[in-house]
Amino acid sequence: MRRGLILIALLLGAAAARTADPYLWLEEVHGARALDWVRAENARSLRPLQSDPNYRPFFDQALAIAQAADRIPTPELVGADVYNLWQDRVHVQGLWRHTTQADYAGAQPHWQTAIDLDALSRAEHHVWVWEGATCERPKSTRCLVALSEGGEDAVTTREFDLTAAGFVQGGFVLPHAKQVADWEGEDSILVGTDWGPGSMTASGYPFVIKRLHRGQALSQAEEVFRGTPQDVSVLIAAFVDDQGHRAVILQRGLDFFRSEFRLVTPGGTAKLNLPEKAEVEGLVRGQLIVKLNQAMGALPSGSLVSLALSAPQGTPRLILAPTARQAIEEVGVTAGCIVVTMLDEVRGRALALTAGQDGGWVAHALALPDNAAVKLVTAGSLDDRAYLQVASFLLPDTLYQLDAATPAAAPVAIRSLPAQFDASRDVAEQLQATSTDGTKIPYFLVRPKSARLDGSNPTLLTGYGGFDVSETPSYNGTVGKLWLERGGSYALANIRGGGEFGPAWHEAGLKTHRQRIYDDFAAVARDLEARRFTSPAHLGIRGRSNGGLLMGVEFEQHPELWNAVIIGVPLLDMLRFEQIAAGASWVGEYGSVANPDERAFLQRISPYANLKPDGHYPTPYIFTTTSDDRVGPVHARKFAALMEAQGHPFLYYEALEGGHVASANLREAAMEQALEMTYLTSKLMR
Asked: What are the C-alpha distances in Å from 347 to residues 254, 325, 370, 500?
């Protein structure tokens, strides 16, 4: 009997050993053995890519586009002025600079430097990457500046005086951590940071919010609110309108999409009467402006509503409800108006909403070019100015200035990006594929006008399919110069999981329904091939982050459909994603291995779990960054190591800096773009 038990135990142990993850050591992001492996793989893969005759011209062209002096300096309204982060050949880390709105609208703005990040990096012996500034309202003379080392999500936060153009001596300083902070008043801020053991969620974000007064040490901060370690995070957003109303909102993330919203009051915090799936967009005329991502009584999902600050437990009032084929994308609140960008059949629209006589809002369609994407760049808090950017695949970006209070006056184009590639021989069109369950999936195709329907067109297909993110037309000079000008074609799939048609389009691909997303993407590929536009030998796919997961799944489920696969900063080990970097925060999107049904589904689709030694796969290009503390580099590392063990060819590159966005400066971005295009050209154009 005892010998039998011992034999069973030995057999179970042997089975466990066979199923144990042999590459857990690669999860030690900065471990010596792991970094040695990274350096070896980088050297092996960079050698053929950078020795390819196309690489150097591609790099030079990509860098020239990235550093071009005639780029549109992206505006950010801070008080009455325009601020901008500018990077170029000389200012690698960048200049945070400012000018007046009138001067910005001129041909040659006269910029004043607030922070020289290159000089600051040299002086402090850090590589500071700009992560943004949160400025106190209404004065907007002091800002909390967030600086990252190498582009990671964790930041150091320091108070900066815009008037004196310097960091405040003895001002607010928050040491390096994943953290949130916003102004409660001129001399107090609310802070969520790493307060010590037990103060961060399983996702790695703060859940304890404290009040810090000017002159206090961080240890003296008083607790305002406490979530739970099981939450994703607790976020802070402070709003002030032009009538003097102030609202500080705490957003307790129950998961990535569900939140509890609380108003900070003198007596503590009060829960707002909002559904769990909502987004507080701003404060105007004493009204909180909120986008609903789920129905609330008679208020439909996807609509825009207002909630009176004087009655936070009251019933919200409808402002705007899109149709089933529309989606509200962005919402900006000015001093007295609301600016909304929308998608209508995945085509950009914009509205200005002004106050009506009955206390409601009147919507005015803005006169902007059709068949393009419209992006809200920034909106003012001291006036009703806003800036909108309009772009399409083949038309360069144009920046428009809008006075939302007079929407009858068309937005004024104040600057346009010069053409960065010759688009005269190309055309963009919107097509439609049919997915496995009969759902119609729209997609865009940018192609040469002379393209023949013989399956020979080199085509790059991209997609994302998750987190309610919409994929819309954009002008990409690098893709245009390095790919389209050489005769390549580009396709963008609007698959489920995104937000192109509102919350329902996203929710159709959540958790165990996620196979629909992967079927949608494959359907677009098959449609391109059924039209005889391209063929597997000439079709490549590319995606990053959640899109990297999409690429990993498609790489394994349909290796016969493509000849090139770019898997960027990806999730790939879906049985351990909750334990890697910020993975626990995405349970609302992917599900959890703690749920048997969800675990079974994740097991079926996880690229790391389903790679087969006898599989016939195209050679992928796998890309990640060491400093990515959101997804983490370990998914890509382990997948590549498993491919190597199984004898599959692959290319792998891991940048040391850049964070999840994969580039800390313009040279690094140009290098990565050149590597990708070299890979695609070698696989699809020869």
From this structure: 33, 10, 8, 9
pLDDT digits (tens, 9 = 90+) for 344-403: 999 999 999 999 988 899 999 999 998 899 999 999 989 999 999 999 999 999 999 999
> In 3-state terms, the chain is what percent helix, strand and coil (to 5)?
25, 35, 40
What are the Cα distances from residue 280, in Å, to 249, 307, 639, 647? 8, 10, 39, 50
Are residues 660 and 34 in contact, defined by beta-carbon separation less than 8 angstroms?
A: no
> 294-297: long-range contacts (C-beta < 8 A, 24 or more apart)?
294/503
3-state secondary structure string across 588-620: HHHCCCCCHHHHHHHHHHCHHHHCCCCCCCCCE
Q: Which residues belong to the active site?
A: 545, 660
Q: In b/e form, how buried is each residue of 68-80, taking b as 16+ CB within 10 angstroms?
A: eeebbbbbbbbbe
pLDDT tens profile 241-286 = 999 999 999 999 999 999 999 999 999 999 999 999 999 999 999 9
First to last CA, the chain: 66
What are the CA-CA distances from residue 182 to residues 85, 160, 236, 364, 685 (Å)? 21, 13, 6, 33, 51
User: Which residue in the block uniquely carries the two structure tokens 């309202």?
Assistant: 137
Q: How many CB atoms lie within 10 A of CB 599?
A: 15
| DSSP state, residue 296 | B
Q: What is the DSSP letter of 558?
A: -
Question: pLDDT by residue (tens digit) across 212-248?
Answer: 999 999 999 999 999 999 999 999 999 999 999 999 9
